[in-house]
Amino acid sequence: MSGLRLGVDVGGTFTDLVALGGGGVLTTKVPSTPRDQSEGVMNAIAASGVEAGALAAFAHGMTVATNALLERNGARMALVTTAGFRDVLEIARQNRPSLYDLTQDRPPALVPRKLRFTVRERMGPEGEIEALDDESLEKAVSSVREAGVEAVAVCLLFAFMHPDHEQRVGEALREALPEVHVSLSSEVLPEFREYERFSTTAADAYLAPRLAAYLKNLGGKVEQAGAPRPLIMQSSGGVATIDDAVRDAAAFILSGPAGGVVGAAYVAGLGGYHDLLTFDMGGTSTDVAPVVEGEAQTSTETVIAGVPIKLPMVDVHTVSAGGGSVAWADAGGALRVGPRSAGAEPGPAAYGKGGEEPAVTDANLFLGYLADGTELGGEVTLGRDLAEKALVALGEKVGLDAEETALGIVRVADAEMARALRVISVERGLDPRDFALLAFGGAGGMHACTLAEELGMSTVLVPRAGGVLSALGLAISDVRRDYVRPYLKSLAEVDATNVKRSFGEMERGAAEVLEGPDHTRRADLRYAGQSFELTVEAEGSFDELEERFHVAHEQRYGYRMDDEAVELVNLRLISTVPVDKPELAEPRPEGEPGSGRREANFGGEWIEVPVLDRDRMGEGSGIEGPAIVEFKESTCVVRPGWRGEVDAVGTLVLEKR
Predict the structure, then answer these.
(1) Are residues 311 and 300 in contact, defined by beta-carbon separation less than 8 angstroms?
(2) Of 229, 261, 416, 570, whose CB has the highest number of CB atoms within 10 Å?
(3) How confident is the model at residue 343 (pLDDT cuts 50, 70, 90)?
C-alpha cells in the first residue's frame, strides 16, 4: 500500500500510530520510551508493518517540550533586557497561584537572576527614546559568553512595535556566539504586555535546544529508515516543519494534546456532531477541550507549569488523572489520586514490572472493567492479582478493603476529571448539556458515561480509533502558520485601509513559506480599560466586528456593554494548507459481537455483564447497558441506563435513557 499518511503520537505511557490510505485505517500501540521518545516512534513504525518507503507524509506529536517545562530540565539560558527591567520575570503579575495559601509560592523563573543581563536603551510607543549603548551591549555579550549558556532570550521594552534595538542585540549575540540559540521577543511574540512577552520568549529559548536535539535525533532515524521528514504538530492545531519547530519552540508545547482535539473534531463531524467536549484520558494525564461548530477552540491565555505562554494554543485543560496516576493516602488518612504517575516504567502494579502502588488502571482492572490477562501495547499483560495486592496494601492505610479502595480511586479520579470538564465548558460560558462528550485515549471510554451523568450530558461518542485518536488527528492535520500584528487603537478610530494593508502584508509573508495557503483573518478586541481581550472573526465591516465582540463577551462573561468603546488590540492571521482527509466507512457486522461475560462492579454491586468485541461490531450494531465493549486499543464501559449504536463512520454513539 503506497501513499499512506502516518501519524505517531508519543504519550507518557504509550506511543500510538495511525496510518491512513487506500480507504483503510491501520492502528498500532506500543509502550513509550521515556529516556528517548524517538525509540518509541520507531518501535511503533516497526510494529505496524508499514514500509517507510510507502509513506507520503509523516506527522508527529510529542511531549518533549511539555516535559521539559514540567520537569524544569530545559536549556541553561540567559536573558538580555532593557536596563531596569531585569526582574520582570520574577515580579510577574499580582495574581497568586493559590490566593489563601500562605505557604504556596510561584514556580521559579526559567532564568535565574544571575543569568539576567541588561543593556542601556529605551524604546517608547513612538519610537527611540534612548539609543542602544554599544558599551553595555558588548558587556552583555561578554557576560553571556562567560555564563556558558545554551540559549538566550532577548526581550527589550516596546520591541513588539519597534524591534530595531532588539534586532541589533540579537545580531551581536548570534555573531559572537553562533552555537547559542537566540530568541527575540519581536519574532516570538510581537504583542504588548512585557511579562507575557518575556515569559513566552524565555520559554522559547529554554525549550529550543532540547527540541532541536530530539528532532535532529528523530529526523536522522526516520531518514535512515527511508521515511519522509516528519512534520511536527503545533499547539494551535496544525503541523509545521522541523525547522519551524526549532525556530518557534514555544509554539509546540501542547503538540500531543492538540492532535487529539483535531482528530476528535474531524471524526465527530463526519457523524454529524459539531459541538463537543473532548475527553482524552491517557496513561499519565487527562486532556479536555471544547469544539464549537466543528472547530477546535484556541486560547492565548495558557499557563503551563506556572509559565504563561501567550501563543495560540488549542484550549486544552490538563489534569493529572490518567490510567497510571498513583493512588495514595495523605497525612490525614484521606484517599488521593495523582499527580504522580507510574508512567510506562514501572507502570501500574498490574503491569508486573516492579510497580507496587495502585493506579487508576489497577482499580479499573479489579472492578472488572478490564479483563484479567489483557494485553496492552503488545508488551504488557495485566494481572488482577497484582492489582488486588496493591489495593489491599493501600486500603490498610485508609481503613478500606480492596473493593472500597478501588471504588474510591475511581471516584476521586472522576471528580478531578469532571472538574476539568467544567473549566472548559461552564467557565467558558458553554452549557455542557448542549454538547456531546467525545471520549478517547486508552482509558477515556471507561469513565465517559459517569462523567456525562455528572455534567448532565446525554450523548457520549466513542470513535472506533478512540484509543489512538491523537495519532489520527496528526495524520489528517493541515499545515499551519499563525501570524500576529499589534494594533492598539479604538475601533472607532481604526483606518480600514490600514487594517486591510496589514492583513495583506501578513498574507504575502505566509505565501512565501506555504504553498497556496488559505487564510482566516481574526482580531483581538476588548472594551476600553479592560485588561483582557477576546478573539473574533475579522471578515466584513467594523460594525460586524464590533457586534461579534459584544456577542462573544456576553457568552463568555454573561453581559455586554454596547455603550462602551471597543478597542482593537491585535490582528491575527491563520494560514493553512489543507491535506486530503479520508472518508471513514463502517462495514456491516458479521456474526455476533459477543465475546463472553464477566462480573463488573457498578456502584458497589457486582453484575454479570456482556462483553462485546468492537472488531465484530459494525454499522447498526446496538448495545444496552450495563455492558463492556473492548476496542483494539481501549475499553468502553456502558453504564446501566445507557444504550447505543455504531454509526456509519464507526463511532459508538451512546445515549442516556
Answers:
(1) yes
(2) 261
(3) confident
User: Residue 613: beta bridge partners?
Assistant: 630
Contact 47, 62 (CB under 8 A): no
Longest Cα separation, the chain: 82
Nearest CA to 198 out of 165, 235, 152 is that of 152
At residue 296, φ and ψ (nearest 5 deg) are -65, 130
> What are the domain boundaries of the chain?
325-412, 480-577, 594-648
Residues 6+ apart with CB under 8 A from 590: 616, 618
**Sheet (strand 239-240) strand order:** 24-31, 14-21, 4-10, 55-61, 231-233, 239-240, 479-490, 566-577, 518-527, 534-537
What average pLDDT score do residues 155-166 get? 96
Res 66: pLDDT:
84
Per-residue pLDDT reduced to its tens digit, 621-645: 999 989 999 998 889 999 999 999 9
Q: Any idea which architecture 480-577 has in CATH?
A: 2-Layer Sandwich (3.30)
pTM over 0.85: yes
* Structure confidence by residue, pLDDT tens digits, 103-113: 777 788 999 99
How close are the terminal C-alpha atoms of the chain, in Å?
Answer: 44
Helices 194-225 and 64-71: crossing angle, nearest 10°? 130
Predicted local distance difference test score (pLDDT) of residue 432: 96
